[in-house]
Amino acid sequence: MRKFLWFILFIWIFSFNWTFNLWAIQTLSLEDVILIGIKNNPQINIASKIKEQYFYQKNLVKSEFFPYLYLEYSFQKWDQGKNIPTIDYQKWGPYLNWNIFSGFSTWHSYKEALLLISSQDENIKATVLNISLNIVQAYLEYFKQKALYEAALADLEDAKTLLKFAKKRYEVGLSPYADVLDAEAKVKEAEFKVTNYKYTAEIAKANVFTLINYDIAKIDEFEFLPVEEEKFKVKELADCIKIGLIKRPELKAKKKEILAQEEKIKSVKGEFYPSVDIFSSYYKYENLPQPDEEFIAGIRITFPIFLGFSRFAKLGKERALLEQKNFEKISTELNIKQEIFTNYKNWQTAKENYETALAWLKSVEEDYRIIKKKYENGLASIVDVTTVLAKLSQARAQVAVSKYNWIYAYYSLQKSLGLIPEIEK
């Protein structure tokens, strides 16, 4: 009875520890990893700070719509000559200046600043897409190495089965000892591959942790969820190009930069018009023979007659920059079209390679089943079996590699359209 109670206690403790370890491991999907990476990646913060600089530039331009108020103080010595005593006096008071018209130069500068801020939003989106694709690549690389590890384990099991058959046939005198040696070599080769892929999978997993800025020391506390294959749907090539030309943030940024540059040119043109200012001041004089006060208010119109052709040079420079940005936009469109076309064909190639690899694996598995049965019955040699085993190993590896190459090709195509499905909500 006591032994039975000890046995029940042991089972309970083992089950508790197993359940605790199961709950201690946190699972992360591809979407989770991408969102964590976007949150923690410093490149996003750098892009955000660049946008913040444009935000303050916008506020700087906006301040020009308001009046400027100063408080002025001065101390002067007044020597009147003719042996009249020198007078030291102070002057202080507020001074206000308000530019109420600048040829709409300030207004267009403000619109330019708003467009540049909006352009930076698109640059941030482009950075997010690049980071997301890097995370996807690392995430899929982990599953690729894991699949190769699992394929190597299957190879090892087949090699052990072959060794068992070879020993059994050798013991009854149906096979030479060389068959056993060949089978043992196959087991050692399979064990080497298992060890290799075991650690390459761990390295790939650590690379994901690095990209999302997680502590690598806690790598065993997390596990990743596989990607669902059935959701991979791709439109026709022409539709993909249309989507890319609409969605790509780099192209949107270029278009907004062009609009901003057009506003810049309008702002420079505004400098050719007269500027209108309202001014007012109140000064109080002290230490004069008679204390005095002064109040001035008025309007000032400034006509820019000749500034050494500087405005024409500035306007020419901004127009040349606008032409440059238009050419950059055309170049960006061409690059996007080429990128989408290339990624679309890469996706088609990867998809067909994966389908071919699956068909090849199925065929080789059937060949292995037949040759193993023949060898067991003495109708095939060890060389026949090891040859088929080598093909089976290649087929398994090819399925693992081609599967994740296909998935990555899908995400590369989506990124070239300006999309990452996991962050498109």
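Second entry:
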Amino acid sequence: MDENLLKKIAGKKPGSLGVIKTWARRSQISPEMVGFTFGVHNGKNHIDVFVTEDMVGHRLGEFALTRKFTRHGGKMQKEIEAKAKEAEVAAAKSAKEAATAAAK
């Protein structure tokens, strides 16, 4: 636990402070932190983390990912996604037509 974070929330009610910015990703979440929102730094910017009871015992850094996933693929992946979208549109049209036919 980071003592500086505990000092910031000491005697305060959850939700009254707004976002508490911190760079201490290694600090462990304690029961006193439940209900507060921390802005955890991920190396580029602060990510808002609302602390719940399930998070007690974990580290703040676990909830602010440092790497951004950009999907795999390329030309082939785009073709697969386009086909999936066409199938979804066709299914929606057929469902709409069925609903209008049933209404008549």
